[in-house]
Structure formats: structure tokens, C-alpha cells
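Q: C-alpha cells for this one, please.
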Amino acid sequence: MIVHLLDGTYELFRHFYGLRRFHKEADPPFGAVIGVLRTVLQMVEAGATHLGVATDHVIESFRNDLWPGYKTGDGIEPALLAQFHPLEEALAAMGVAVWPMVELEADDGLASAARLAEADPRVRQVCIWTPDKDLAQCVRGDRVVQVDRRSQKVRDAQGVREKFGVEPALIPDFLALVGDAADGYPGIPGIGAVTAARLLNRHGSIESFPPGVLGESRDLALLFKKLATLRTDARLLQDVDELRWRGPGSGFEAWAERLGDARLLERCRALQPA
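A: Here is the predicted structure, written as C-alpha cells:
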């Protein structure tokens, strides 16, 4: 089997701002939610049988206690923020395994689910659907891969090396050195992507760097590495069979009506396994 893991928060943002191009005056109240549900159904229609979606139930996580500049929910548009929880509820009603993350982030949820799925010998491949560079650290050969929906690229371990210049396991070190503006930490001054890759390929992880390489910035680099390292210990499922899509629950009809998209229910019923 192939296990598909989706970043629900990313998908929600993608659909919200995609709709903005066509709705200049007002944002549809559940437009992004409908978009994500349609995306999931398209995957099932294309043959996906086992799916899980991780979401940021809240934006803040344990990382905000480690670094004051780490990303928060400040600045997220109210029309988008108002769709976070409805998305989780609608996905669950549609019969999709959904993990609303609170102390951890959606990325941690995806990393944890990928680790659990990879350990199952019945799983042929794990596909993590997000372009977020953090998730590149989860790639394992061609067994756990990252899929960028925008570019339609599937990135295996060789693809990670080609893009970042380092092995997947060194992605947290790489991000610690170059920084991640989306997550709110700046990296180490004077170190860009090329220099970071060169240092990591020469010395290995930051902990193995000779003392003079980072000097007084070493502790800061290790802190940023902690921010960049995804947690894989979230207990999200006991068995990958929990990810099998078996069709919508009894409450999805009400959700389809609330969303104003009866076609969603029709498609679900047409796809529901006998």
C-alpha cells in the first residue's frame, strides 16, 4: 500500500489565496475548506486508499517557548483563521484521519505519521504532500518521499541532495545555519546555502563542527537546530489500517449542506468502498 500524508494547514492556505484571485470583493466563508476536501477526494479518485491529514489546531507550539521570534498566529487573516477548525471537523466527518496538533505542529504530526507508516512492512511507500523544506528531513531513499503539489515533483533522497546539497538527515542542521524566514528564525550571519552545505558535508552535524567553525554562534546554531528538528514521537495511530478511507460518516451530509456543495457528498458516495 501507499500511505499519503497531507499538510492540512498548507492546503488551507493554498486554497484560500488561490480563491482570492477569483473573488476580489469577499472571501467565501468556507471556500478554502471546500478546496481541501475536493483535493482529498481527487486523491481518492486517483487511487489513494490510505490518507492522513495533520493540521495546526493552533499556530503556536512548544517552539515558541524556545525562541521569541518563532512564528505565531499574528497576522493570519480572520477569514482564513476562521476556517481552521471547520476544516478539521469536515475532514473527520468525511471519514479522513485528521490530527489537529496543539503543542506540536502539523509538520511534527506528518513526521510522526511517516515514521509509524514506514515501520510497517505492508507499506510500499509514504508520500508526504507538502513543499515545506522542514519535511525534507523525513525522506528516506525512495520509500518516504516528499511531493510538491505545485510543481508536481516527487523528491526522494537524491532529490533532497540535489535541492539542498545535503542528506535528508542533515536538513535540520542546514536550516539552523541558513535560517527559515517562514518559521521566524534567522540562521547564522554570514552563512548561506552553499557555505552551509559545504560545512555539513565536510564535518557532519553541527555537534561535530570543530570549535572554531561557528565560534560564539555555536549555541545559537544548536538552538535553531532544535527548532528545525521535527518531532516523531506523537502517538497518532496504532495501525496504518486506521488510515484506510472507508467513506463518509453519517454527519457528512450535514457538512456538505453547510458548505453549500452537494457534489461533495455525491462524490463521496460514488467512491465509498462496497
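A few notes: The two ends are 19 Å apart (CA to CA). The chain has a mean pLDDT of 93.
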